[in-house]
Amino acid sequence: MKDLTRVGLRWDPCGHAGLTGPLLALADDCDLAFRRLADRWHATEERHPSAMPASALATHLRSFPHQATFAAALDPADANLGEFADGPVTAPNGTVALTRIAPVTTVLTPAACYHVYAGHAREHLSEARYVSTRNTCFRRESRYEPLLRQWSFAMREIVCLGTPAEADAFLAQARAAVDYFALLIDVPLDWTPATDPFFRPHTNPGYLLQRIQPSKHEALYGGSLALGSVNLHHDHFGTAFGITRDGAPATTACVAFGVERWLYALTDRHGSDPDGWPDLLAAANQVVDR
Amino acid sequence: MRSEADIRAALHAFVQRHANDFPLTDDTPLFTLRVLRSVHLPELILLLERLRAGPIDVEQLQPGDFASIDVIVRRFGAVS
Q: Is there a single domain that holds both residue A47 and residue A29?
């Protein structure tokens, strides 16, 4: 991979990227463009924390325990904190010399849209609802690579909560919008059916369903890098969170963008000189005004 | 391995057990209409493996393989 340090990439090998200068501006433009695409559905913008109660994500945690990151804190008992503070705190290899841990109840956000379903729990929708949200998401991986595969990364999502027909229509429109946007900024994409990286997939109902009835399609750059995906959840979240539409559990769907991966694709395609980067917001405007 | 008729009858019984009085036919789109759901798939695969007396390689599953009872019988009615 080319060196993007000059344009503002700061890389922590633990799997976290920092951005400054032109690359930060490009990331902001990316997110602004995706937000503008959300206007296609008059989506409401929502902002959520980067953590949520693990109890709300039990099914997810069973399916993806290898990717989960939990928020851990020390047991607040004075003696326990003293033992920690008086100890080495960190070892030379970077490991924290933890003392007793308080009960863990919180998971760091694995996908931006989960907050939307939790936030709209027990709502009865009289029309389709569209929400746009961005979050820092956390997924453990076996290896990390700047912009391509990170422990923490920015995810922008546009979510539809509606009937099955409304969700289907949304996904078709979302794919068309992403295609046109990618065409305008000259980032070639190919859509392909995909499965999520389930733990023990062969016995996981979610994985088996994705095999026989694809509900996830990824937009690939360069044949293998997923810059985004469209996902149909059927009534999984509608049922889990008591959200109804027309008296039945709501069907939900989302289009998700991995911002850092778009940075990779844009700089790979157009070079690392900011003068060569396309006008993302103008392209998004053109998509919405079409 | 059971006969095709036996397999079809067993599949009917399995689906009907989960179908909540849905008017089931051999070409009912089982997962598209949500007659069956993801939670039923592991049990359905185990049932088919028992009926055909042979394993099903999950990695070889293709979109549409469980579309209806007709499709399932055609696709998994015999050990290939």
A: yes
Domain that holds residue B46: 4-76
Checking phi first, is residue A196 left (phi over 0); if not, alpha (psi -120 to 50) or beta? beta
Q: Which two tokens stand for residue A41?
A: 């559905």
What residues in chain A have their Cβ under 8 A from chain B's Cβ atoms? Answer: 193, 201-203, 205-209, 211-214, 234-235
Tens digits of residue pLDDT in A195-238: 999 999 999 999 999 999 999 999 999 999 999 999 999 999 99
pTM of the predicted protein model: 0.93
Q: Does B39 touch chain A (CB under 8 A)?
A: yes
Residues 6+ apart with CB under 8 A from A158: A34, A37, A38, A41, A43, A130, A131, A132, A174, A254, A255
Residue A149 and residue A262 in one domain: yes
Q: How many domains does chain A have?
A: 2
Q: B42–A208: do the CB atoms touch at under 8 Å?
A: yes
Domain that holds residue A238: 5-69+110-289
Note whether A116 and A172 are same-domain residues.
yes
Tens-place pLDDT, residues B29-72: 999 888 999 999 999 999 999 999 999 999 999 999 999 999 99
Q: What is the DSSP letter of B35?
A: S
A chain contacts of residue B45, beta-carbon cutoff 8 Å? 208
* A165 Cα to chain B: minimum distance (Å): 12
CA torsion A262→A265→A270→A276, rounded to 10°? 20
